[in-house]
Design a protein that fits this description.
With 131 residues, the chain is of the alpha+beta class. The chain is 16% helix and 35% strand. It has a seven-stranded mixed beta sheet. A hairpin with a 3-residue loop joins strand 4 and strand 5.
């Protein structure tokens, strides 16, 4: 859901230290259903906003959590399943719904930032690949 006049969508702040930049790999494009983020990035920029029981379950017990992800350009929110993938990465399952209608390519960079009012992860395309 898009923001309201009282609680507008949190815009991208290029000066924020909490931005997460992901350069898309070949495995994350096309028919992929997942995107990968490192544990360090999520711990520093997202997990601090989540309930501690969710973070503990995710990290220590390999439990999945649901997270809303908001496409800032299209104003569409989708819900993704986050699961631990090994010791240092997490996979966001459900990315095929985001890729529909988009023309991402390997090497494109997308940026994520936390929206404290809507309790979700916002994202937008940051840089296009010229390859």
């Amino acid at each position: 859901m898009a923001g309201t006049d009282i609680y507008p969508d949190a815009p991208f702040d290029p000066k924020s230290e909490r931005n997460i930049f992901i350069t898309l790999t070949e495995s994350e494009i096309g028919l992929s259903n997942t995107i990968t983020m490192s544990k360090e990035l999520l711990e520093a920029n997202v997990f601090i906003y989540l309930p501690s029981k969710d973070v503990t379950g995710l990290i220590q017990h390999n439990e999945a959590i649901l997270m809303d992800v908001f496409d800032y350009d299209t104003k569409i929110t989708t819900t993704h399943i986050i699961r631990k993938d090994g010791d240092k990465d997490f996979k966001f399952h459900g990315w095929n719904t985001v890729f529909q209608g988009k023309h991402f390519r390997t090497g494109d960079t997308i940026v994520f930032w936390w929206d404290v009012f809507h309790l979700r992860l916002n994202f937008k395309q940051f840089m296009f690949s010229f390859v």
